[in-house]
Amino acid sequence: MTIRNFEYLFHPKSIALICGGGEAEAIISRNLMSSGFQGPIMPVDAKRWALEGAIAYRDVASLPLPPSLAIITRPLREVPALITQLGERGARAAVLINEARGMPASERAALHQAILDAARPYLLRVLGPGSQALNVPGHKLNVSLNRQALLPGDVALISESGTIAQTALDIGNHYGFGFSHLVHLGDSLDIDVADILDYLAGDYRTRAILLYLEHIPDARKFMSAARRVARTKPVIVLKPRGYPAEPDDAVYATAFRRAGLLRVEDSDELLQMVEVLKAAKRVNSDRLVILSNSASMSRLATDTLQRFGGRLAQLSEGTQRGLERQVESSVAPNPVDLGDRADARAYGQALDLLLADPGVDGVLVIKTPNALSETSAVADALIERLANSPRCIIASFPGPRTGAEARRKLVQRQVPTYETADAAVQAFMRIVQYKRNQALLMETPPSLPEEFTPDVAAARAVINAALAAGRRQLNTHEAMQLLAAYGIPVLETYLAHSPGEAATLAAQIDRPLALKIISPDVVSREEVGGIVGHLRGAEAVRQAAVAMLMQLRSTAPAARFNGFILQPMVPRDGAYEMTLGVRAGEHFGPVIYFGHGGTEAEIINDLAYGLPPLNMHLAREIMAQTRIYQRLRYTLLRRADLKALALTLVKVAQMVIDLDALAELSINPLRAGPHGVLALDARVRLAPLLPGMPVQRLAIRPYPKDLEESLHLSDGRELLLRPVLPEDEPPLRDLVARASSEDLRLRFFQPIRELSHEMAAPLTQIDYHREMALVAVGPGLPGQAEVYGIVNLSADPNNERAEYSILIDRAFMRLGLGNLLMRRIIHYARARGIQEVYGEVLTENRRMLQLDQALGFTVHGDAEDPGLKHVVLKLHATEQSAG
C-alpha cells in the first residue's frame, strides 16, 4: 500500500503527452489548456509540428525538461519501452489512455507485467490502462476525454467505469455540484482504489468520497484504506449487486458495512447522499416522525420506513397534548396528520413540538399540493426552524410544478428534499445506516463474558488426521471434537463403524438416541433416510442401522459409507434452533454467518454475515441484522442467552484465524435457550494450503498474538505486553485519569482532564495492518486488566516512516517500563521494514529526550517553535516480517 510519487500524478509541474495519432490526444490537450494548467504541456509526436498550438517533439529524449506526468495514448504494446524512456527522463507518473481490449488473456497479462517491470526501477506510478479521466480542478488539471469542464468542489469521485464517471460529471454540472478529484481507474494495473483512498484521506480539500466499484482484487488493502478514511470523512459506494457473481453480493455488503461505508443504489443517489449526510450529526437512531397534510402519503411513507427497518417515533405525552388542537384524537399520534387545509402556521406549530421531543431522531415534512394552502410558505416555516433544530429534518414536497419553488428554497438551505415521500424516507434510513456503520468503527466492545483458551493443538490434530487420510471433510464426530476444542458446548457424540458396534454403544448409553449415517457423498441425510430419532435399546438401534444402510445402498449406490453417529435425544424445551458457521468469501477470505436454523433454514433464508475477527459488539451487530433477533431478544417466555450466542460467534471467528485449513463450517442446529447454547450437528470442509498459496487469507488482519510476551520489571513484578484491543478503552481511560496534569500535557501537548471516547477509540481500535500499539497490562481479561503503559506506532501509507507516542503510569516510570516499551516498538518497526521512527517531544520533557537519545534517536530543534524537539531514529530494514 503506497501513495509514493502521487504528487506527480495529482499536482504535476509539467506534462508530456505521448501521442498515438488519434483524436484522443487533441481532446486531452484542449482540456488541459482550457482548464488553465500552468505548467508546460509537451506533445511527443514525430508526425506533427504542433498540437493545439503546443510545439511537438520527435521523441521523449527530445523533451526540453523532465515531465512530472506522462499521458500516453499510444497502443499498449508500445508502453513498456515508453515507460523506460520516461523514467530515465525523470517522469514519475503516467496515465495510460488505451486498454488491451481484444487481446488474448495470456498476452494481456504478459504486457501488464512488462509495464510494471519497466516502471519499478523509477518508482513511476501508473494509472490505467484504459483510464479516461484524471481531473483535479484545484490544480487546474483536466486529463480526460470529456468534452465539458469539471466544476470545482470538495467531493472526490473514484470510478471503475468511464461511463459512470461521465454520468456523474453531467449530473454534477446540471445541479452545480463540483468535485475536488475525479479519477477513472481503468484496469488498476498499479494504482487502485485503495491507493487513492489513502491519498484522499490526507487531502484537506476533499470533504467526502464517492466510489463506483465492480471489483476489489486486494480485499485486505481495500479494507485497511477504507476503514482509515471512513473515520474522518464520509465514503459512499455504488456497486452492482449481481456483478461479479463471485463473491456474491452478501460478502461485499458485509465488507462495506464493516469498513464504515454507505452503500447506495444508483448514480443520482450517489451524489445526493453527500448533501444528505450533512444532517447525519443530528441523527442518533431510526425513530422518525412523519408530519403531513395527507393521510395517504403518510401511510405510504410508513410502509417504506418499516420496509427499510426504521421505526415510527413514540411521541411523549407532552408532545401529544400539544398536538391535540391540530390532530384528531381518534388517530394514532404518529404519523401526524394536519389535514389537507394545513397552512404554514399549522406546520410551524407542529414542528416546534416535534423538534423538541427527545424521542424523535428525525422529522419528515410532507406537503402535498393544495389550493387552500401555499406550499412555498410551508417551506419558509421549515427553514425558519432549521438553524436551531436539534433534529434531522427531511422534506418531501411533491408536484413537478407546485412543489418546485419550495424544493428549490429548501435545497439552497441544504435541507434534504425530495419530490416523493418514498425517496425521503429512504434518505433518512441511509443516514441511519451510515451512523450505524460509523458506530462499528468507534464503539467500544464489552469484555468477553468468560475467558476461553482454545485447545488449538487438539483442533489441528483432528484436521491433520483427516488430511493425512486424504479426506477433505470431517465426519460429525470429528466436527464435534473441533467445536469442543474451542469451548463450544456440544451434544455427546459417539462413533460406530457398523450396525453391531452401534448396538453395543446403545446398550452402554441406555438413553433414547438419534442415529445418523456418515457419508461424505450425502448432502442431506433426510433425503436418504439417514437420520432416525427416539430409538430405545440396542436392538432398535441395530435394526435402524441395518435399514439405514440398505436405504443408502438403494438411494445412492455410489455413496461411501463411513459409519454411524449416535447422540442422546435432547428435549427442545422451547429453545430456538439457530445456525452459524463459516463460508467462502473468495478474495475477502472466510465469512462468518448467523441466522435461523433447523431443517427449513434454506427456505426461511434469514442469515446475516460478518468478517473475522469478531468481538462481542461485532457479533451482536451481526445477530441484530436477522429477522429472528427481535424474537430472541424480546420474547418474554422464550428469551435466548444472547451473550452465549455472541460468544459462540467470537469462538468460530477465532477458529477461522487459527486454523488455515478450515474452509467451511456449518453448525445446524445450534440450540439456543435461556441457559446457553448446544451444538447438535456440524459439518466441516477442509481446504489445506498448498505450496505457493498466500497465507494472508483474511480481509482484516487479526490480532497478532505472536507479539504477546512477559515483561519483567526492575522491582521483580511481571506484566503482560500485548497488542492493544478495542476492549482496552476503559482501562486506558483509567490510566489517563491516574496521570498528573503535567504528564498529560507533556504527552498530548495540551492540558486535558480526561481521555474522551472520541480520543480513546482511535488509540485502541487500530488496524494492525498499518498501525501498532502495545500495552503493558496486569492480570485479567481485556477490558478488566489494568493498563500501566501504552506505546503507539503509526506508519505512513508507504510503510517508510512511522510516528511513535508513549504514555506510562507514573508509578512505573522508574522501573524501566518506558525503556522496555520503546525497545519493543522499535523492534516491531524494524521487522516491518519501516525505515524511520520519529516523534515530537516538548523541550521541557527531559526524561523522554534522554530516553530517546539513549535509544539512538537524533534530536533536532524546531525553527518555528523553540519549545518543540523533533526526534528521529533511522532503522536498517531486515528480511524479517512482523505480519
Explain how this protein is built.
The chain is α/β, with parallel strands linked by helices and 883 residues long. Among the domains are: 6-216 and 228-244, 3-Layer(aba) Sandwich (Rossmann fold); 283-442, 3-Layer(aba) Sandwich (Rossmann fold), CATH 3.40.50.261; 705-874, Aminopeptidase, CATH 3.40.630.30. 35% of the residues lie in helices and 22% in strands. The chain has an eight-stranded mixed β-sheet, sandwiched between helices. A seven-stranded mixed β-sheet has the order 9-8-11-10-12-13-14, sandwiched between helices. β6 (93-96), α4 (105-119) and β7 form a beta-alpha-beta unit. It is globular and about 100 Å long. The model is unreliable at 877-883 (pLDDT under 50).
Radius of gyration: 32 Å
CATH superfamily of the domain at 6-216 and 228-244: NAD(P)-binding Rossmann-like Domain
The coarse silhouette is globular
Low-confidence parts lasting 5 or more residues at pLDDT below 50? 877-883
Write down the oligomeric state: single chain
Structural class: alpha/beta
What percentage of the residues does DSSP assign to strands (E)?
15-25%
Q: Mean pLDDT, rounded to whole units? A: 91
CATH topology of the domain at 6-216 and 228-244: Rossmann fold
Within the largest sheet, what's the order of strands?
32-33-34-35-36-37-39-38
CATH architecture designation of the domain at 6-216 and 228-244: 3-Layer(aba) Sandwich
Distinct helical segment count: 28
User: Sheet bearing the most strands, described?
Assistant: 8 strands, mixed
Determine the fraction of residues in helical runs and give it as a percent range.
25-40%
CATH class of the domain at 6-216 and 228-244: Alpha Beta
Kindly report how far apart the N and C termini lie. 14 Å
Count of DSSP strands:
39
